[in-house]
Fold these 3 entries.
Entry 1:
Amino acid sequence: MAEFFSMGGYGAYVWPSYAMTAVIMAVLLVASLRGLKTTEATFERLKGEMAPAKQNTQETADGDEA
């Protein structure tokens, strides 16, 4: 088992590389999820702002026809 972990003398380079890769992947996952949450919140806010404008446009169009 020790031979496996030593990787023929390269274990001191291989295992820290795996650890760094895992940390970087975790950081990217967290950053992506936070960005998604922010983008979804912005989308919902903009969608909410557009709803009254859409209603006003429809009311104006209805008013012009009458």
Note: Residues 25-66 form one domain.
Entry 2:
Amino acid sequence: MATMQIIGAVVTLPIAPYVMDRFARRAPIFFGSLIIISGAVLQGAANNMGMFLAARGLLGFGGGHTALACPALVGV
């Protein structure tokens, strides 16, 4: 249950660099934050374990995008 968030972040690793190169840094941070918010809403409204795990995966996916894009934006 706890590793689902890590799996979502690992899925982001091959995708996020291409998204950041294509759309700069602000857009991936914005959309990653939206994904995190939707995952938090889904996790709060989860009725069963499948919904809860999907929400944890969304949290990891959005967190991976923001974690990879934020240091590059701050360092510029």
Note: The chain has a mean pLDDT of 89.
Entry 3:
Amino acid sequence: MEPAPVDAEGYFSQEEIDRARRYQRPRRALGFAGLALEGGALALVASRPPEALRSAGERPLASAAAAGAALSLGLSAVTLPLGAVSHHRAVDAGISVQTWGGWAGDVAKATAIETAMAGAGSAGAMIVIRRFPDNWWAPVSAGAVALSALLVALQPVLLDPIFNKFTPLEEGELRSEVLELAGRADVDVGEVYRVDASRRTTAANAYVNGLGRTKRVVLFDTLLRDFPPAEVSSVVAHELSHVKHRDVPRFLAWMAIAAPAGAHLVQRLAERIAGEERGSPAMLPALALSAGVVSFFGGVAGAALSRKVEVRADVFSLDLAGDPDAFISLERRLALKALAEPRPPRLLQKLFGTHPPTVERIGLGLAWGATRRLPDTAAAAAPRRTPEGS
């Protein structure tokens, strides 16, 4: 279904559009600056590996683990000032409600987890590279897919609770509505959880994660607190599409298809950068740089695929909930809370957007309503601006 043409000014005031631009443009600049800093730091270390890595001697695995952990820790330190600026801007904009202490605690926990995983991953990569010096890309790609599947399965029960508190959605009207929607969609929803997102943000969201017995739908408490029931139902119906269409397993399947080619490119690029250091721990900076470059371009392809998945979920939500008014109002309200640009720059959206822009999603709601010839279609088409901008 093609979205109907939508004029952003029909749903957002010029002040709302300008405010979103003032927030998002520096935010994107900070993101690109972070990528540049990480890439520059990795390129520098890859071109001049530390002497400790060159002389790893009889302890290559220990050296690889230490190097991976040190690289991860160093990159976190390099980009920390930019993260602090981003946090300060989010607080000023009213999106973040987290104190500096809380923010620092989250950064410390995330850095510790990333450092440990980088150390273990580097040691594992070195074992494979030394065992299969000519074709290590094949076992590395298989291991990456297996590890990703394991992390997806364990994240809801092992990693996420480190940062947030998750509680099953309590018995009541909302839970009954969720189960009723799931029944109509013929979806085994697993468990539905409320997460205490309000301790960090005023923005609202929902997502699906986990595999098998850890599969779950997670709703931000800000969504449940600040949005009317019809709009919450629209969000839930969208998330049920991800369950119905097995989008998490499909993502892993897509990764399994793309990983071999990506790993092969990483090997070719890393060995070219590393030169005579190939096969030794001194190769790890080149490996990290190569993986980052390939992942960047792989992410562009992944974003295009994600947008298609999200459009399908939007249509599913409209079909299931049958309320284009609520869908359109929801998209507007979500954009306002996140200070998202209704129509972001075309090139950036095409390269990095994982979801359709807000104006396209509103247009999809309008097109759905017109196609179904619902009695409230005319109301759906009307601008949804309110005096309070919510």
Note: Strands lie at 166-168, 191-195, 206-209, 216-220.
